[in-house]
Amino acid sequence: MSQPTAPETLGSLSDETPVDPNSKQAKAIAGRSPMQIALGRLVRDKIAMVCAAVIVFFLVVAIFAPLICKLFGVSTDTVFASQYLDMLGGGMPLKGPPNNGFDPEHPFGIAPQSADDNLAYWVYGCRTSLTIAASATLFASVVGIAVGLLAGFLGGIVDKVLSFFIDLFLTIPFLLAALTIAPILNDRFSLNDNYALIQKFSLVAVLAIFGWMGMARLIRGEVLSLREREFVQAARVLGMPTSRVLIKELMPNLAAPIIISVSLMLPAFVAAEAGLAFLGIGVTSGASWGQTISKAVKYFEEYPLYLWEPLIGVVLLVLSLNLLGDAIRDALDPKTRR
Amino acid sequence: MKRNKPLALVAGAALITLAACGGGGGDDEGSTGGTDREFGDQGAGTKDEKLQGPAEAIEGATEGGTVTVYVAGDPGPNSLDPTEGWSVLGNSIQQALTSRSLTQYKRGPDGEPVLVPDLATDLGTPNEDYTEWTFTIRDDATWEDGKPITGEEVAWGIQRSLDAEQFPSGPGTEYSKAYFEGGQDYNGPYTDKGKAYDAISFDGQDVTIKMSKPFPDMDYWGAFMAMGPAPLGKASQPPNYGQDPLSNGPYKIEKFTVGEELVLTKNDQWIADSDPARHQYVDEWIFKFDQDQAKVDQIMLSDNSDSQTAIATSIGSDKYKQANEELGDRLVQQTAQCVSTLTPDYTKITDINIRKALAYAYPYNDMWLATGEVPGVTRVPANSVMPPGMAGKVDGFQPDGEQITFNPEKAKELLTEADAVGYQINMVYYETDPLAVAGQKQLTKGLETAGFKVKATPIQVSPYDIWLDPENKINKTLNLRGVNWCSDWPAGSTMLPPLLKTGAVYNTAQFSEASVDDEMDNIATLPLEEQADAWGALDEKIMTDYFPIIPTAFRNDLFVFGTKIGNPSGDAALGAPNYKDFYVMQ
Question: Domain A118-323: which topology?
């Protein structure tokens, strides 16, 4: 009896065509790590790729903001408003949109009332948005991961204390705290020359302080189940120091939840930054999409372009980040695939 | 008078206007329609002490209807107690509709305010040196419960104005306490309970007030509702009385929700014959406070059935062009008797050339645009502290030869002359308001173009909190402040001393010249008919010789009226819609 090339099966559970494990194709599959598999899934996801392209575009805009402004010959410098605006016409621009055609000197038009260049403010607004959201995400996730790991792994009194702090921070209303902190900081630092920088740092701090709890809870839960697994117990029995167990044994197994929550935290912070700026807290000097939106709202009829520009920026960036986050989750955790 | 304007509208270097009221001024009243709105000459306010009720009927007026007044961005008064009222919004409503006082203003034929009797039978009788005034209260004036108003109730109401503890933001703190005999030592009937105060006395319907120093403007002060009656005893106990005060005007208070709404209905006990200037055409008034400007603009421009009988007390600058083209006579421009100023610190910026350089470096049109004003319409160039239309103002004088406009070259020349190129200016701006931030950017740009260095400190409290606090650490570093001021009545005495007398609270320039102080004291002792010109001359002298304050703008308001509101017009005395004379076309 000759040996069949493929092992006998009673039927396939998957709908993929059974592959001979000895064939070349099968060997290629066998050599891929789980991350590579996930990445492969992600690359095949068309929506994810479009979103990634959009995000790359915004990243380029943010990183090369000064160059882009130079290229178009625009800047965020203040100009004398009366030279560019129709004084009796509701402060509308004399050249360019909304009442005239395209103005090559100001491709996005200029703002009513102040004559600020919209393109320059849009580009720098993108930069503000991304720097603040990225730094806040970084801080929040570092804190969240550290707290989650310690609480979950050490358990006992440490877990109780850390969980208490997680709950405590969850009870503090974020908006209220942000509204309270702004005038306190102003009172303390308003005479400082670096006030604008301090304002940015404090905004990052506020966002991070109220953004790490979700991550910490998630990690803690994962660690609670992981620490009872054999490989962790083996490591402990071998006498590995706690730090090594945490970083070498547990962390790699937490990569998926960390990547997922970071990718969803980022858009939340972009939206929060814009929201705070809209309310007049956060970045008050300098460019910010939220601030431009709050100025532009009353012009929605006369000068819709002025409102659409920052609005499209925020919506596109947040939507892309969110969809990409979803796609990453699907790729890493195929069980939840729809 | 305090002007509870939304911060957003008054933004810039100087934020909230304090003090308003007063008058003198007809302007074109928006009658030109179309796109050209220019300011006519301002006629000074007059007096008519003989005028008696009933008020002259408005041509074509009909009775009935409900008028809704939309007040954008201003939460309105917290209390309706007449003694407490010192804001343009609250006083313009209450003095016109619910709360009578000794005297009142009537809109004259050219829109100028005319001081006429109200509860008093005339404009009061002073003694020779204006240290004692007697008012005779008319017999036929009544409360909303039908009881007659007595001299005792008027005397009691006036006495209440001396209580600075109970009414800390009332106008009595500025005038009653300063002028009434013993006013400084007497803390009012609530705080100094039981203490006798005999500077205000009554004999039947005659009320007599003794002054500690000559007070020739008592008849103007009498037009404040604080100089009106209050029910005796517990009935007028603050603060409860402020929620539902007893009305004696043509309307009574139906419903009052602080910060939201005030509803007034006809007071059927009001006798038209007793009142020389008020009318009772409308059935019901609804005042809606703290409205969104964009929403109000939409309502007023839509001309639907709701907005036809509505009035808006302001319009967004972004809608000005559309409103000007579409509304015609229904868009009314009213002078507000106010001046916006920048105040260089007189003790720090001692060189007059630097102060003048600041005036030339102020980008007027750019500032107005950036802070949401309409240049030339809601803000017009200013030349001195006294607003146009104030009695005695010297016409056409300019402190520096011609109208100061934005001229960085000229500013540079002046700075070079003063050997102060690169002079450091320290100021504050209100960073919570995007318009104030935008305005500050323009101002900084203007000053820097002219060769100044600017350090603008962002603050999150009202700039007045900084400017008026001598101990404030930020305030100590400043050498440029600002103040917006409106007259309480059309006399120089309500403009110059509060802003430029040594030690005056709102003298944010820290201006102090003994000769000017002496002259201010001296003017009060002059015969009444010479005072107006003396104030005007002093105004010119201060601006020409010292230039201690940079007047950046005289201010105007814009009102929008629905198509069915009859007689759309403004009240020049208060800078508000002329509520006394409106009716609804049937």
Answer: MetI-like fold (1.10.3720)
CA distance A128 to chain B (A): 17
CA atoms of B368 and B442, how far apart (whole Å): 10
Identify residue A147 by its one-letter amino acid code. V
Contact A78 B444 (CB under 8 A): yes
Token pair listed for A29? 């599959």
Residues of B in contact with A291 (CB under 8 A): 434
Interacting residues of A130 by C-beta distance below 8 A, sequence separation 6+: A58, A59, A62, A270, A317
Chain A residues touching B462 at Cβ < 8 A:
none
The Cα-based distances of B518 to B180, B347, B417, B497, B529 in angstroms read: 21, 19, 32, 11, 20
- Domain spans of chain A? 118-323
Residues in chain B with CB shorter than 8 Å from the CB of A195 are 458
pTM of the model: 0.82
Measured from the Cβ of residue A319, the count of other Cβ atoms closer than 10 Å reads 13
Q: Which parts of chain A register pLDDT below 50?
A: 1-2, 4, 338
How many inter-chain contacts (A to B, CB under 8 Å) are there?
101
Q: Do A87 and B437 touch (CB under 8 A)?
A: no
Sign of CA dihedral B23, B26, B27, B28: positive
pLDDT digits (tens, 9 = 90+) for B318-345: 888 889 889 888 999 988 888 999 999 9
Q: Scanning every residue of chain B, which has its alpha carbon at the shortest distance from the alpha carbon of A196? A: B458
Is the ipTM, as predicted for this complex, more than 0.90? no
- Contact of A291 with chain B, judged by CB distance below 8 Å, is answered with yes
What one-letter code names the amino acid at B439? G
Pairing of β B310-312 and β B66-72: parallel
* Chain A CB contacts of B362 below 8 Å: none
How many C-alpha atoms does B209 have within 13 Å on its Cβ side?
35
Query: Mind listing the pLDDT tens digit for each residue in A82-91?
Result: 889 988 877 8
Cα separation of B29 and B522, whole Å?
A: 37
User: Which residues of B are less than 8 Å from A183 in CB distance?
Assistant: 460-461
B338: burial class by Cβ within 10 Å (0-12, 13-18, 19+)?
A: buried
**Contact (CB<8Å) B460/A186:** yes
Determine contact: A7 vs chain B, CB below 8 A.
Answer: no
- Whether B586 and chain A come into contact, CB under 8 Å, resolves to no
Q: Can you tell me the distance from the alpha carbon of B547 to that of B358, in angstroms, rounded to the nearest whole number?
A: 11
Q: Does B381 touch chain A (CB under 8 A)?
A: no
Query: What residues of chain A lie within 8 A of the CB of B319, using their CB?
Result: 90
- Best probe of the B interface among A78, A199, A294, by most B CBs < 10 A, is A78
> For every residue of chain A, which 3-state class applies, written as one string?
CCCCCCCCCCCCCCCCCCCCCCCHHHHHHHCCCHHHHHHHHHHHCHHHHHHHHHHHHHHHHHHCHHHHHHHHCCCCCCCCHHHCEECCCCCEECCCCCCCCCCCCCCCCECCCCCCEHHHHHHHHHHHHHHHHHHHHHHHHHHHHHHHHHHHHHCHHHHHHHHHHHHHHHHCCHHHHHHHHHHHHHHHHCCCCCHHHHHHHHHHHHHHHCCCHHHHHHHHHHHHHHCCCHHHHHHHHCCCCHHHHHHHHHHHHHHHHHHHHHHHHHHHHHHHHHHHHHCCCCCCCCCCHHHHHHHHHHHCCCCHHHHHHHHHHHHHHHHHHHHHHHHHHHHHCHHHCC
- Put simply, whether B354 touches A (Cβ < 8 Å) is no
In this predicted structure, the answer to whether residue B572 has a pLDDT above a threshold of 90 is: no
Q: Count Cβ neighbours within 10 Å for each residue of B128-166 and write b for 16 or more, e otherwise.
A: eebbbbbbbbbeebbbbeeeebbbbbbbbbbbbbbbbeb
Residue type, A151: A
- CA–CA separation, B386 vs A179, rounded Å? 41
